[in-house]
Amino acid sequence: MPEGHTIHRIARDHSKLLVGREVAVSSPQGRFAADAERVDGHVLERIEAYGKHLFYHWDSREIGHVHLGLFGKYRISRSGDDGLPEPRGQVRMRLATDDVAIDLAGPTACTIDPPGVRRGIIARLGPDPLRRRSKPDAMIERVSRSRRGVGDLLMDQSVVAGVGNVYRAESLFVCGIHPLRTGTDCDPAELEALWATISGMLRQGVKDGRIVTVGRDESGVARNRRIPRSEATYVYKRERCLRCGSEIVRLDIANRTSYHCPLCQPR
DNA sequence: CGTATATGGATAC
DNA sequence: TATCCCTATACGT
User: Fold this and answer.
1) Straight-line distance from CA A230 to C1' C12, in Å?
2) Could you give the number of structural domains in chain A?
3) Which residue, counting CA atoms, is nearest to the C1' of nucleotide B7?
């Protein structure tokens, strides 16, 4: 379930387990074996999240890069009486200490690179609302000068980093913006509000460990109450709008299914 | 058992 | 715009 919130949550959780320690790095599946060897046994100094990218800073000065893509997943297992459990399924990378193993399966990217690679990736990304001191200026500038649709622009990681298909649908819904509205037709105040909405949703996502967008603009909803998936979004993957009951419209935008409410988000 | 689907993105036209 | 890659899970037969 990888949008930006997942990545930042992983960086936070995995840091507690691995940072400052010598880490055994391996590739049970084999495809990462040559890279794994280069940092195996080194101390992990920091795990950094930027948009949907993860960077592992090793004391060898090399940097691990992981991008989960659509399918990538981590699994954590603890050491038992027989030590660490065998990897299950296709495990590209295993990061292990004496008491914990973190297994990565199905990533789009998993490499060990010189520092320039990280710099190049970050240079191509727009501002990430989850990073400290990030500002919406660059996003607003890009969007307001573009004739592309807002639904298209939000999926472009060089415009904003970390937004995926769920947050695209949900943030545009909350802001009442039709996904096909062009960037040039949005005024700066609207885009400020859109940034604030995205930022708030992503932060909530990091806390919850999943995407629950309902209740952000209402009062009195206990966020830690168990909310079933069917009530977690306003429009994403729904048949009818959670607010007004209108039939949700699906469009193909930027190669992905976009969802919007024709009544709450008029063209 | 098969098949469809998924919160992504690079690359080839 | 179309195609491909990566893996697990849900669901139908």
Assistant:
1) 22
2) 2
3) A1
CA of A59 to C1' of B12 (A): 38
Q: Which residues of A are designated catalytic?
A: 2-3, 52, 256
Give, in degrees to the nearest 5, the angle at Cα A176 between A173 and A179: 70
Helix and strand numbers (H, E) in chain A are 7, 10
Query: pTM for the full model?
Result: 0.95
Which tokens belong to A253?
Answer: 């935008």
Q: Determine the distance between A145 (CA) and C4 (C1') in angstroms.
A: 32
Give per-residue pLDDT as tens, A75-131: 999 999 999 999 999 999 999 999 999 999 999 999 999 999 999 999 999 999 999
Residue range A218-267, pLDDT digits in tens: 544 555 556 777 678 999 999 999 999 999 999 999 889 999 999 999 98
Residue nearest to nucleotide C9 (CA to C1'): A71
The residue whose CA lies nearest the C1' of nucleotide C6 is A106
Distance of alpha carbon A118 from the chain centroid: 17
d(C-alpha A51, C-alpha A118), whole Å? 12
> In terms of Cα–Cα distance, which of A161, A213, A202, A155 is closest to A183?
A155
- Same domain for A181 and A104: no
CA distance A221 to A65: 38
Please check whether residues A143 and A117 belong to one and the same domain: no
Cα-based torsion angle of the residue sequence A147, A151, A156, A157 in order, rounded to the nearest 10 degrees: 130
Q: Which domain, by its residues, includes A196?
A: 137-260
| A21 and A86 belong to one structural domain | yes
Q: Which CATH number is A190's domain given? A: 1.10.8.50
